[in-house]
Amino acid sequence: MIYKLKQDLAHTLTVVTTGALFSFCASYSNLSTAQSLDDAVQTQLATGTGGLACRVLFAGGGNPTGNLLEICERTTPLGAEPGSSGGASATPASLPFEQTAGDDTRARETSEIQLDSNWSLFFTLENGSIDRSQSSLEGPYDSTIQRLIAGTTYRVNSQLSISGLIDTSTIEGDFENGGNFKDESTGVNFMTSYQYNDQISGQISAFYQKMSSERERIASFGDTYNGFQLPTWDGTPDADFSPDKFGLAGNIDYDFTYKRFSIMPQIGIEWFKTDFGTYSETDDLDSGLQLTFHDDVMESFQTKVGVTTSYPINTSKGVFIPQVSLDWRHEFEHEGRFVAVSFVEDLNSTKFTYKSNDLDANFFDVNVGGVFVFPHGYQGFFNIQTLVSNTLYDSLIFSAGLRMEL
Questions:
Q1: Phi and psi, residue 354, nearest 5°
Q2: Residue 263 φ then ψ, to 5°
Q3: What is the mean pLDDT of each run of 10 residues along the chain (406 residues)?
Q4: Which helix (H) or strand (E) segment is 68 a member of?
Q5: Beta strands in 176-222 (DSSP E)
Q6: How far apart are the first and last CA of the chain?
Q7: pTM of the model
Q8: Hey, how many other C-beta atoms are within 10 angstroms of the C-beta on 382?
Q9: Are the CB atoms for 248 and 237 separated by under 8 Å?
């Protein structure tokens, strides 16, 4: 049977992961060289830099206790008694640090047949890998993502449709130098699609996600003082925190068609904000190196310019529509951001500022997939997504789903 295709807004939502994917560990640089957060903390505590962090704690009214106090007592240079700067400027140190959530999602439109029903359901399963070449916590990491999306679409008329979906995902990863993390999220997404005419269409969407995150990192501090080896403090600081993420997106498409071949240029904007809040690490080994992160917030604002090509192929079972898309993305919030931290065992919570390095401002998102249109109001789809020219992230995401008319 040959189906009449309508090359407009689809009511099957293929949600793919693009951009800087969902994680809480990103790259950073310490002035001119990249290093881990643990290295940065050691730099601040080391006697070679004059025990800068400890002098700031003492001179700035800090109140270190426990093993942190022992570290400071052993590393503060002679002549720099508690309460004095030791001849150095007692200003907060500028330390590198970043915590980034790059998960950025979008709904992709596909070809469809004319449907009799105004309601439809859709389901998407996603699985893949997200690897980071650098990380602010423990160097590079490898991670996997599993995702389930379920939603419904209501076609108001031939031009307007409204969709709502529930999105659940789990990302688990291991830091190359030890430690691990796990991020679970559940969210909702609402999307409105409008077909202005046979060529021009547009979409607007809004989403909210509630996350539950766990992170364990390896921390160690050792040094020498006046030629003597100081004790080594080792720990595994871990943190549990519950970020909130919300955002808006919109895009406009223009569909050029020649016979059955379709070329669809697209432009769009995407904005999201992630509020990590204030949270503290704990350490079963009580190393004194555990930290509190204060009022941590991250924003992303991206524009995208791309093109999607498709060509419907009629078969005896239905219609198969292969699709290929390429998007160029520009991140306006690519400059390094600042995060305030303090040592948990400093009772006065004297803050230090960590600065991240720049993220990639420009990169590409490539998708290859297809849609299957079957009798009785069923559509299936698959998609393979990867990032190109992104120096920080490598990803390979597979997704497949089903849409059914009610």
A1: -105, 135
A2: -125, 120
A3: 34 34 32 44 57 58 74 57 37 31 35 63 95 70 95 94 96 90 96 94 96 93 81 92 96 91 95 95 93 92 96 91 96 86 92 80 95 90 94 92 92
A4: helix 66-75
A5: 179-195, 200-217, 219-221
A6: 21
A7: 0.77
A8: 15
A9: no
